[in-house]
Amino acid sequence: MANAFFSDLLATISERGRTLLRRGDSADAKRDADGLIELCDALLSGRGEASGTAIAREVLDIYRELDAAGRRVFFEGLVRDFGPDRERLSKAIEQWRAKPSDEDASSLHFASEPRRQELIRRLNRAPGGTGDLVNMRADLLGMMNGHTDLAALDRDVSHLLSSWFNRGFLVLRRIDWSTPANILEKIIRYEAVHEISDWDDLRRRIDPVDRRCYAFFHPAMVDEPLIFVEVALTETMPGAIAPLLAVDRQHLPIERARTAVFYSISNTQRGLGGISFGSFLIKQVVEELRRELPKLDTFVTLSPVPGFMAWVKQDKDLPLSDEDRELLKRLDEPKWFESPETAALLRSVLEPLAAYYFLKARTPKGRLIDSVARFHLGNGARLERINWLGDLSPKGLRESAGIMVNYLYRLDDIEKNHEAYANDGEVVASSAVKKLLKSEGRRLLDMRLS
Amino acid sequence: MANAFFSDLLATISERGRTLLRRGDSADAKRDADGLIELCDALLSGRGEASGTAIAREVLDIYRELDAAGRRVFFEGLVRDFGPDRERLSKAIEQWRAKPSDEDASSLHFASEPRRQELIRRLNRAPGGTGDLVNMRADLLGMMNGHTDLAALDRDVSHLLSSWFNRGFLVLRRIDWSTPANILEKIIRYEAVHEISDWDDLRRRIDPVDRRCYAFFHPAMVDEPLIFVEVALTETMPGAIAPLLAVDRQHLPIERARTAVFYSISNTQRGLGGISFGSFLIKQVVEELRRELPKLDTFVTLSPVPGFMAWVKQDKDLPLSDEDRELLKRLDEPKWFESPETAALLRSVLEPLAAYYFLKARTPKGRLIDSVARFHLGNGARLERINWLGDLSPKGLRESAGIMVNYLYRLDDIEKNHEAYANDGEVVASSAVKKLLKSEGRRLLDMRLS
Amino acid sequence: MANAFFSDLLATISERGRTLLRRGDSADAKRDADGLIELCDALLSGRGEASGTAIAREVLDIYRELDAAGRRVFFEGLVRDFGPDRERLSKAIEQWRAKPSDEDASSLHFASEPRRQELIRRLNRAPGGTGDLVNMRADLLGMMNGHTDLAALDRDVSHLLSSWFNRGFLVLRRIDWSTPANILEKIIRYEAVHEISDWDDLRRRIDPVDRRCYAFFHPAMVDEPLIFVEVALTETMPGAIAPLLAVDRQHLPIERARTAVFYSISNTQRGLGGISFGSFLIKQVVEELRRELPKLDTFVTLSPVPGFMAWVKQDKDLPLSDEDRELLKRLDEPKWFESPETAALLRSVLEPLAAYYFLKARTPKGRLIDSVARFHLGNGARLERINWLGDLSPKGLRESAGIMVNYLYRLDDIEKNHEAYANDGEVVASSAVKKLLKSEGRRLLDMRLS
Amino acid sequence: MANAFFSDLLATISERGRTLLRRGDSADAKRDADGLIELCDALLSGRGEASGTAIAREVLDIYRELDAAGRRVFFEGLVRDFGPDRERLSKAIEQWRAKPSDEDASSLHFASEPRRQELIRRLNRAPGGTGDLVNMRADLLGMMNGHTDLAALDRDVSHLLSSWFNRGFLVLRRIDWSTPANILEKIIRYEAVHEISDWDDLRRRIDPVDRRCYAFFHPAMVDEPLIFVEVALTETMPGAIAPLLAVDRQHLPIERARTAVFYSISNTQRGLGGISFGSFLIKQVVEELRRELPKLDTFVTLSPVPGFMAWVKQDKDLPLSDEDRELLKRLDEPKWFESPETAALLRSVLEPLAAYYFLKARTPKGRLIDSVARFHLGNGARLERINWLGDLSPKGLRESAGIMVNYLYRLDDIEKNHEAYANDGEVVASSAVKKLLKSEGRRLLDMRLS
After folding, report:
1. Where are its TM segments located (chains A, B, C, D) (predicted)?
2. Most buried one in A194, D190, D259, D417, CB count within 10 A?
């Protein structure tokens, strides 16, 4: 039974946000990006202090009405006109060089702060400002593609967003069928791993007793899930996605559940790109589930391998015989996986190759190739199992020839695994995965590897 | 009718906070400050990344068990061992000096960031961390008195707190008789202007139809009002505090209210010292009240003048005749204000002197002497009226010979007033106040002033 | 800003309800209706007193597992075995006959209460009991069709439900896009007037600024809207439904709205049949809207005329010429309304006929024929306008040849209108409607009427 | 994580209630009780149907302004003018006598219902009506003292209240230090067993980890706890109240708690007199505590014995020797309990006498004498222990010579115990209590008893 007084705090923010949205819609905003820069100057001046949040709100409203070109001009203005105070900075450097104390480094740090950081903080004062700034960064990222002139601005925006979206400010909420429709709508829209086709599909993922969904929210953007994870409760570790999503599957009586399967994690805010919540989300959901269902003993993902086939196709040094290469052409046969023989043959090549992909293959800079693998192994998970024919959707076939993997989260090993990976680049994997690499059927492969 | 889904977000935080508090109570924390520094190192390392929020929570729990000496040692460790990365900094300086572009200033800025800033951000990830950091800063401020060695640490802590307690994250809540007791208890405890003697006194200030109280809350510290203001709704601008607080006063039917009187503003968190919310609070409460009660047309304070008598006693250049000075000795007579003659004589000296205090007197550095005046005039209010015998409490008599003042908030003039004050040091005052300075009865005074 | 402590009260009920639902699902309930009757006996006995709510819960769980035949046997048992205490009743009658005082009538009243009333009250003690009893009555109504043997039981159940669903216990809630999906799903399912095709259609009805939806809830059934009304805010009184529901319509800026149009009212609980909330709902929504939007000055329905064409077809004494009757055959032409000539001709017959239908035609018992008209006129509304080609949907064409009507709710006239209707059977109508009856073009018709 | 949509439902009611209260304050209500009766007639007529809830609200507002005499006149009017419809009743009796079927009994039942029942139901439709009716019944009970003329009215009011305050509609809420002050204030005011002296005392009872307080609320009266119980969590069954309430007691770490002690149960609403919630409250709190703290294994009261000394003084047939009687005079000595000898002597008489009081003594009608005992034994508890010097407060000494008792709630035995008591008047007691009756030291007493 919670302390209900605070219940309304966020409801308050929520309402405020919505009111503003509507006001903004009808606001007259013919002024251009230059006028906007002037207004930003005013916001940083005494007038901004006095006006409370009105000027900040105005800046954000006008920004919203700008087209892409106008926004670009505005961003360039921020880069050009809102850098650090050079004079103050020069003095601080002189002081530091004269006597390089930590104290002076601190002065230097504050003296070198671009004025736009304070500008962004003041914009954030406006009701609904945080959400607007996140959207602004989404615009910014969209424009940076190949242009480094906006990088300094992005560094400042993302520095502040990263501070404000500190995990300590995020709130975990369960998403279920009694969640407001405006939130659920976003879950449908943002699911990035296994598309949600409609409201019925959504309901199958959040309403049954053996399904869970959790999201992080920020108190200043209460209508927006920031990241969410979909969880299936099962008896054992699953090897394929289709049975989990099947329309007519049997629900598992909750008392028989022993395994929690994280089968989809999606970020929702482009503007928060590069600010990572996923690791915290998984760990808190594990805690949440253990509290609610003490019988759960396995926490595992069922994950795609998005980079596998691209690597197979591009890499010229694959540890493959000509015969193997020939075999791989069968992947172009339609519905190859429906032929047991073809599938068996391909498996004998692709499973060891997948093990190699995870355990040995690296980018030129020595990084793991697979982004999903980097995420989970970086979080301290272990590569537990490679699942043949795990995802037979067009996307799954295209990206990974249907292969899926399980990453296992064992809380006691998380720090150790993470350090092995972070410090030594070591991929902690189950013996089953390692064995694939060395397996009898892959003698030749291994010979060539040595 | 608010969006109620989010109601629980903060309730969630609130519960979490409380659970942790209790766990903390019983935690075994024999480790000393040195161990704590090591743990901080771990938190900044990969281990910290992997462990989620556990190490952060541990650091804060152990800190809480330290005594004052231990805390000081810990702070010194943070100053000593968590400064910027000097090597990286030196490189950035060289780059800048070679070619002082804004881009490089940005590198310089991030390179000079003391490592403790990231440390503090990671501490904040712990559930309840924000509140703990605020308390930690309260400790820090208590130790800094005259010691500059901790100043760099404080600059970092307060920089981050200031960013996190951005007005955009604060939520305004009305405080009334249906507010949870744990919040109300803090209102009683923290009221700094006109002490609240007990729960009955509190109720008289928040429950009647013609009384209001509002506070700012932060979503990560939902049990803690950060600042609150007490408001009386009246027909006209009041000149004395006692009738507002009288036990047996008549309540004003709300439809007759035309004036909102801000008669007390109190900060509650020592650890947020120097981070100002007051201006935002007043402005938002004005908006809130105007929405609820469109007939209100005057928004005004009834404020103490805490520095007046100290100034009178210390300043040697008061514009006073010897006769005036002689008169002032009567302030030592007990209950002098009960004698109409004495009061009238004193008034003839003190009212003009108060006008002088506000309009002319300045500190050696040219600042206004009165802290309350600096606050309201800095917010863009206008000095509206000097009230003779406004506060006959011992404190009121001691500090200001019973004088109180009204500062008037007129939203249309706020920017203008603020700029006059901020740029030119001009105190915007009503003609009545200005006239006091020049008034007939003060001929001599004025002659001497000219 | 509401008192949030109570927020959780209903959340509590809600959770409880859901928990039980799930438990019930898996309950083993092989016992038959006879065992159920025994359990009911126990519930009425001392055991029931002592066990708290456990036996009540058990009865309801077992009932839920019964098939239709079992339920019927159970109901018959309730009729047979849980009537009044005859001995006590006889005594009370004797006393009354000896001396027919009000006091004795009271004894008689309580003595004649069937024991099942107390049984039903005790069943209601179970968590979730109220909802189960409402569902039980839905079953009962389904079985009563033509069988009077269950009528006594129904009288008792509906008597109690009617007392428990007293308007004082109902809570009005706005339904919008931030309403939980499990509620919205029921709005989609239960809409009985203009079907909601899917979630997008729903959203168009509740999310735009110029649309509203309100429902009554009962605190013991918080997941179930009991009745809801859909409202369009418009500039003027509309004459057709299609523009209100159009996919691509323009939203009306809310400040231009002057009219609130109740275009759909739907009951949701079959088990509450005969217990009327509609009148209260409309009146409270009118109040709610006037508070929120003071500029609204017209509150009106846009209603179907479900009985019109059936009446036209069945009634042999229609005031129609042979020529008119001939004309009516054109209604069988497909898309007749797309031919301006046909439509004009039909209008000349059907509009006056509709006026006659409302103002003159009556059932053999003298009642108004149209159920929707009985509802609104009984609530004190006035028949304001007959709208030609108001609803061109298949249902609208079939039921009323496309005619819709507006009923006007003018709060000041409600009592007067109601009494005119209730006491004298008078249909209060606008002069425009009355004039239709007498209109020039209908000379012949009128001649025949006189 | 609760379904938060419904959170606002009750908040809505709560606000509504408060608004009305204020409106009511200023309502002009000069009309007298006769006018009120006329208005009640209107409410029962068609006008009442049409007006929604306005007339009901008006009746309740005017009632509130009446003085005691006016209220009495009003009540008498309800008795006189709102009885059953005699004509309809006579017909129903004739039918029944002709053929006494259950069907006709049902008609008789509905025909004999006094018109005031429907009147009261309609009054309840007004916002805030339920609370007003409860207050009205409190007035009524106050006037009935010795007057039977209002009994019929009270029977109807209490019949309806009893139906509306059905346990299924009550909501259990924990009361703690984060509960709104307006609720807590009522806890202070209504505590009837061990007075709460002030807010500090209250806090000691609800805030520590080893204390709990729960109350039942009704959704239509959300500001009013109906009944509440205070619980202490302890290691073992306590024998005295003072240590539980001590200002400076040590809090018990919650993981060591094995026993939940219900040491105070208080009703708050005089107007709900005779409608019993206590049994449900205790049973649900037991369930609640078992869920939260699975280690709790003993649920027990620490109860006063309010009727004991009155019985000792009045009963002439006490099983006492002259010597014993002489001894009892020592109870008049001040602070007798501080003398070990006196106390020991008195104990040897009073403990067996208390056992006799519970196990053997009965009223002339054969009922248990002690009201608290009747309540708990009627609920199915067992008399577990008699505690010598359990309550040394003036009230405790006066009422029971300081004796307190424990009643034990063992859920498995509740039905059995209840039936033993209800059917056979048997007091289920521990062997320790029974032994007291027969104890060696009380040989003589027992001899005389036999």
Report:
1. none
2. D417
Each residue of A295-316: pLDDT tens digit? 999 999 999 999 999 999 987 7
- Annotated catalytic residues of A are 303, 376
Number of B:C CB contacts under 8 A?
13
CA C175-C177-C181 angle, 5° bins:
85
Query: For residue D43, is pLDDT > 60?
Result: yes
CA C196/CA C202 separation, integer angstroms: 6
Question: B1, B106, B123: best mutation site toward chain A, by most A Cβ within 10 Å?
Answer: B106
Cβ–Cβ contact B243 with C under 8 A: no
D13:C171 CB<8 A: yes
Beta carbons of B47 and A168 less than 8 Å apart: no
Task: Say what the pLDDT of residue A312 is.
Answer: 93
- Amino acid identity of residue D288, one-letter, is E
Q: Are A214 and A175 in contact (CB under 8 A)?
A: yes
Q: How far is C1 from chain B (nearest CA, A)?
A: 7
Q: What is the pLDDT of residue D106?
A: 86
For residues D251 and D208, the answer to whether their CB atoms sit within 8 Å is yes
Residue B181 near chain D (CB below 8 Å) = yes
3-class secondary structure, B384: strand
Confidence grade of residue A439 (pLDDT, cut at 50, 70, 90)? low
Compute CA C140 distance to the chain's CA centroid, rounded to the nearest angstrom.
18
- Identify the pLDDT of residue C439: 62
- Is the minimum CB–CB distance between C125 and chain D shorter than 8 Å? yes
Task: Write the Ramachandran bin of B380: left for phi over 0, alpha for psi from -120 to 50, otherwise beta.
Answer: left
**Is D181 in CB contact (< 8 Å) with chain B?**
yes
Q: What are the tens digits of pLDDT across the range C129-139?
A: 999 999 999 99
Three-state secondary-structure class, residue B381: coil
A299: left (phi over 0), alpha (psi -120 to 50) or beta: beta
* B211 — pLDDT class (breaks 50, 70, 90): very high
Pairing of strands B211-217, B171-174: antiparallel
> Which amino acid would we find at residue A324?
D
- Partner A, chain C 9-38, Cβ-Cβ below 8 Å: 12, 14, 22, 26
- Taking an 8 Å cut-off on Cβ atoms, the answer to whether B8 and D5 are in contact is no
Catalytic residue (choose from C158, C264, C266, C303): C303
Closest CA to D221 of D16, D57, D60, D54: D16
Name the residue facing A418 among B8, B50, B79 (closest C-beta).
Answer: B50
Pairing state of beta strands A404-408 and D298-301? unpaired
pLDDT category at D439 given cuts 50, 70, 90 is low
Give dist(CA B233, CA B252) in Å, integer.
Answer: 8
Which residues in D170-205 are b (16+ Cβ under 10 Å) and which e?
A: bbbbbbbbbbbbbbbbbbbebbebbebeebeebbbb
Given a cut of 60, whether residue B31 has pLDDT beyond it is no
Nearest CA in chain C to D83: C102
Q: Is B376 a catalytic residue?
A: yes
Between CA D260 and CA D210 the distance in angstroms is 9
Asked if D356 and D320 count as a contact pair (C-beta separation under 8 A), the reply is no
Model confidence at B1, pLDDT cuts 50, 70, 90, reads: very low
Backbone φ, ψ for residue D261 (5° rounding) = -110, 115
Q: How far is A288 from chain D (nearest CA, A)?
A: 11
Of the candidates D7, D181, D184, which has its C-beta nearest B7's C-beta? Answer: D7
What C337-344 contacts at long range (C-beta under 8 Å, 24+ apart), as own/partner pairs, is C337/C389, C337/C392, C337/C397, C337/C402, C343/C388, C343/C389
pLDDT one-digit tens code per residue, D292-344: 999 999 999 999 999 999 999 987 788 888 888 899 999 999 999 999 999 99
